[in-house]
UniProtKB/TrEMBL annotation:
The lineage of its organism: Eukaryota, Metazoa, Ecdysozoa, Arthropoda, Hexapoda. This is AMMECR1 domain-containing protein. NCBIfam families: TIGR00296 family protein (TIGR00296). Residues 10-204 form the AMMECR1 domain.
Length: 209
């Protein structure tokens, strides 16, 4: 996952994030799983934005992979790349298999409105995603991010979210108020669409009727 992040605000209209982006991610993953030629370029916009692709599985929507980039990428290339990277290379999980394909949901998140936070509490739960930079107990610079929905889904307050994010980024020492205050925080917003395998198949049949 890229660690650089632009503070320049990105313009994004309401129609930018479309179900077709999720369908395209399913197409890409299907072709990869079955060793087929990649799908044709999609018809939606190819503007450049930072983006994330998240795979979840089952009725309880368990996380199965989530990777993205803070560097603006053209959507066709970025979704093609991160649909597979998040499915196969998220180090927290085993690669997604053919048997799991029909149980999947995919979310496409396009990131916008990057702003430097005044401190580690300068963000709003449910509205902002956050990216933090910090130095671990050995003095090495590390980064980590949570998308806007994570804190709400987990039921965390701001401090719990920051502490979890420090652990996610590899901080293994005792988290004190001074450690939290040393964090450099960037907040951002996202536009997100989620589609299920059932949505994908319904669209596939509609296109062929």
């Amino acid at each position: 996952m890229a660690t650089s992040c632009s503070s320049k605000k990105q313009k994004l209209n309401n129609s930018m994030v479309l179900p077709e982006m999720g369908f395209f991610c399913f197409d890409v993953l299907y072709c990869q799983l079955h060793q087929l030629e990649p799908p044709k370029p999609p018809n939606f916009s190819n503007d450049a934005f930072p983006l994330f692709v998240t795979w979840k599985i089952g009725k309880d929507m368990r996380l199965r992979g989530c990777i993205g980039t803070f560097n603006a990428m053209q959507l066709h290339t970025g979704l093609r790349e991160y649909a597979t990277t998040s499915a196969f290379k998220d180090s927290r999980f085993n690669p997604i298999t053919r048997d799991e394909f029909s149980k999947l949901h995919v979310s496409v998140s396009i990131l916008r409105n990057f702003e430097d936070g005044i401190d580690y509490l300068d963000w709003t739960i449910g509205l902002h995603g956050i990216r933090i930079e910090f130095h671990n107990e050995k003095g090495s610079k590390r980064t980590a991010t949570y998308l806007p929905a994570v804190a709400t889904e987990q039921g965390w307050d701001q401090i719990q979210t920051i502490d979890s994010l420090l652990h996610k980024g590899g901080y293994k020492g005792l988290i004190t108020p001074d450690v939290r205050r040393s964090v450099k925080l960037t907040r951002y917003q996202s536009e997100e669409i989620t589609v299920s395998y059932q949505d994908y198949m319904k669209n596939w049949y509609n296109l062929r009727c």
